[in-house]
């Protein structure tokens, strides 16, 4: 399999070069009609936040096994995991449905938010850009203003005027021995754009300082095809993306399945999109997107199906963007409708349920008062759950539930000097309970838990604030922020201290409690394009329940730090870096504390242009000293540490 992937990489490299040479013979001026050129002006602060996006060279330096590993060094970000495949980002101590993952602006369509053993069904190697969405724009996609949105951009529908663009990427590592490869190309002629992409990943069991963690292998395959057509001020497009994954969840210890669990999943997305760009108002757009998602997931225990999930989801999103409306220099508003059907089989004791969602959203920016900019955002709607009777579900819990949801955020950004900004955000956050939080009543062997929902739960809600200072200088740029959220009803599964003795599983009960979540983060980096380069980032978060004794919230990451220093030449960059985390001793009842750790690494990066292509090669050595790293948010932390010494390489050619 490794040989076939390598052959595909080399063959695609040669094919891409031939196609690019052929396309160059048909170069023509197609004008500047891309969507980016037509978008309305953003608030200044939102534009500055785009500097934190992972794209281009910055993304290539961080590419790893999955999306969570790739963004782990961003401020306020941690990783919830149950092995290398089942890893998901955590933002400001919040995980699950507090953090939404989107692909090209639409829902990802998997079940990774519902359980720690479920993987994000998305290949990171094909991403063009990763961004942690912050501030008021969170409410364009989610009610959870206290959490966040992880945006994956691929541009599967190829709106644009690039005559030809192609790439070939290859990634390999020793910490989980194996390789991944991706090939993609898009072309444009006579108003028609087409795009195609293929990817594959084959990685073995994870190597740790204490040995190999069995049953952690990963096999992923995916791809997409897309097309778009430009007709005057209209753009029409469609794409189809597929993703398949087979990965393991380790076992063989108390609370886990004796032989581990093997999970197979597949996902299919069909997206249709239309845009209207008025000729007389170049800052205005009307965007209509419809997506149909199909997801299927099986968990095998000793070759028998222990759990099965089938999800059918449809989504319609209409968004209008406008610019220069009197005091408003930017306005985005729209509506979203969602329908989702979830059916479960095997030893899953949750009734089949259909849910519906409807929402209105808006973000408006205004400014001009002595350097003050204000951005207002809101999201208003509802979520409706319709469970069906089932022989495996608790009949007393089969109850229709409806939730009215509303969230808002107001951001004040004051320019306090040249390149210096002080920002204050005030927000209300909310979210509806998930199907699992409402109706689940039974064991989930792959997650090592016996889970009890609560069909009487109210919607989660809370109020919060964040203050941030940013400074952009000729030599250094830095930011510091502090945040706090008071949850009136924080929903979270908590260990009850009881055990289901028939399966020897700890019982987790979903509860709604008052809670205080607060923290801070800071980052600094040099701004020189060549010469000495340095950066550092640190994050801290603390969560407390008001349950009589102000107990600590579970699954809160400890203080962490990432620092890097290096030197950049024209075609070469060399750097060394260090990561450390303090011990986490602020834990919920029945939760184990976690010791701190420190790791060191080094990186070499080569970039050059030869003939028709741009080439890049990134070589990393992570955890060089083979330190014992225990991720506090991992269900495996008491069994085995994270990856040990790991050598990785990313090679990419773009035409």
Summary keywords:
mainly beta, 655 residues, 22-stranded antiparallel barrel, 8% helix, disordered N terminus
Report on the structure:
This protein has helices spanning 2-24, 35-38, 44-49, 56-62, 67-71, 435-439, and strands at residues 54-55, 77-81, 87-91, 99-103, 106-107, 129-133, 148-153, 164-173, 178-189, 192-203, 206-208, 211-213, 218-231, 234-249, 261-276, 285-301, 304-322, 328-346, 353-369, 372-387, 401-417, 420-431, 441-444, 449-452, 460-472, 476-500, 505-526, 531-545, 560-568, 572-581, 597-610, 613-622, 646-654. The model is unreliable at 1-41 (pLDDT under 50). It is 8% helix and 56% strand. The protein is globular. The longest helix has 23 residues, at 2-24. The chain has a 22-stranded antiparallel beta barrel. A five-stranded mixed sheet has the order 1-6-7-4-5. With 655 residues, the protein is mainly β. A hairpin with a 6-residue loop joins strand 18 and strand 19 (353-369).
Set down the secondary structure blueprint.
Blueprint: H1 2-24, H2 35-38, H3 44-49, E1 54-55, H4 56-62, H5 67-71, E2 77-81, E3 87-91, E4 99-103, E5 106-107, E6 129-133, E7 148-153, E8 164-173, E9 178-189, E10 192-203, E11 206-208, E12 211-213, E13 218-231, E14 234-249, E15 261-276, E16 285-301, E17 304-322, E18 328-346, E19 353-369, E20 372-387, E21 401-417, E22 420-431, H6 435-439, E23 441-444, E24 449-452, E25 460-472, E26 476-500, E27 505-526, E28 531-545, E29 560-568, E30 572-581, E31 597-610, E32 613-622, E33 646-654
């Amino acid at each position: 399999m490794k040989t076939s992937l390598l052959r595909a990489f080399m063959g695609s490299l040669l094919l891409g070069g031939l196609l690019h040479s052929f396309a160059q013979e048909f170069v023509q001026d197609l004008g500047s009609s891309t969507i980016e050129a037509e978008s309305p002006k953003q608030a200044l602060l939102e534009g500055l936040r785009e500097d934190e996006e992972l794209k281009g060279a910055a993304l290539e330096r961080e590419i790893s096994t999955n999306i969570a590993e790739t963004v782990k060094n961003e401020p306020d970000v941690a990783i919830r995991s149950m092995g290398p495949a089942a890893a998901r980002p955590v933002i400001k101590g919040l995980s699950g449905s507090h953090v939404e993952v989107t692909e090209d602006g639409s829902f990802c369509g998997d079940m990774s938010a519902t359980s720690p053993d479920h993987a994000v069904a998305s290949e990171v190697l094909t991403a063009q850009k990763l961004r942690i969405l912050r501030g008021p724009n969170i409410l364009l996609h989610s009610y959870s203003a206290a959490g966040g949105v992880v945006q994956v951009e691929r541009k599967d529908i190829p709106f644009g005027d690039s005559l030809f663009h192609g790439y070939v990427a290859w990634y390999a590592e020793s910490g989980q021995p194996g390789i991944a490869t991706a090939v993609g190309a898009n072309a444009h002629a006579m108003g028609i754009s087409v795009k195609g992409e293929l990817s594959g990943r084959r990685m073995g069991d994870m190597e740790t300082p204490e040995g190999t963690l069995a049953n952690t292998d990963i096999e992923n395959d995916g791809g997409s095809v897309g097309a778009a057509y430009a007709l005057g001020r209209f753009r029409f497009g469609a794409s189809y993306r597929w993703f398949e994954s087979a990965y393991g969840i380790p076992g063989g210890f108390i609370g886990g399945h004796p032989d581990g669990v093997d999970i197979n999943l597949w996902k299919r997305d069909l997206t249709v999109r239309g845009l209207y760009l008025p000729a007389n108002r170049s800052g205005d757009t009307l965007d209509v997107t419809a997506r149909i998602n199909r997801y299927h997931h099986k968990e095998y225990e000793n070759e028998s199906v222990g759990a099965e999930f089938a999800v059918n989801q449809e989504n319609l999103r209409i968004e209008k963007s406008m610019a220069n409306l009197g005091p408003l220099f930017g306005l985005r508003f729209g509506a979203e409708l969602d329908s989702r059907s979830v059916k479960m089989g095997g030893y899953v004791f949750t009734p089949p349920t259909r849910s519906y969602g409807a929402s209105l959203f808006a973000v408006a920016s205004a400014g001009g008062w002595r350097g003050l900019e204000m951005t207002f955002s809101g999201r208003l709607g509802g979520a409706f759950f319709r469970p069906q009777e089932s022989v495996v579900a608790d009949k007393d819990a089969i109850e229709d539930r409806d939730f009215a949801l509303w969230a808002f955020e107001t951001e004040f950004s004051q320019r306090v000097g040249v390149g210096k900004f002080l920002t204050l955000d005030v927000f209300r956050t909310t979210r509806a309970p998930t199907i699992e939080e409402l109706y689940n009543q039974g064991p989930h062997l792959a997650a090592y838990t016996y889970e009890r929902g609560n069909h009487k739960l109210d919607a989660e809600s809370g109020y919060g604030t964040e203050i941030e200072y940013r400074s952009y200088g000729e030599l250094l740029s830095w930011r510091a922020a502090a945040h706090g959220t008071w949850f009136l009803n924080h929903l979270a599964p908590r260990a009850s201290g009881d055990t289901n003795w028939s399966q020897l599983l700890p019982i987790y009960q979903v509860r709604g409690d008052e809670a205080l979540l607060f923290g801070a983060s800071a980052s600094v980096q040099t701004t020189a394009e060549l010469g000495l380069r340095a950066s550092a980032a640190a994050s801290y978060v603390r969560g407390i329940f008001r349950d009589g004794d102000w107990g600590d919230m579970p699954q809160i990451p400890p203080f962490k730090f990432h620092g890097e220093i290096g030197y950049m030449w024209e075609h070469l960059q060399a750097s060394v870096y260090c990561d450390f985390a303090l011990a986490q001793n602020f834990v919920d009842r029945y939760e184990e504390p976690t010791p701190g750790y420190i790791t060191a690494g080094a990186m070499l990066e080569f970039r050059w242009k030869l003939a028709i292509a741009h080439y890049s090669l990134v070589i990393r050595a992570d955890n060089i000293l083979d330190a014992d790293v225990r991720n506090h948010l991992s269900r495996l932390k008491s069994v085995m540490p994270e990856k040990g010494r790991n050598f990785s390489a990313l090679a990419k050619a773009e035409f």
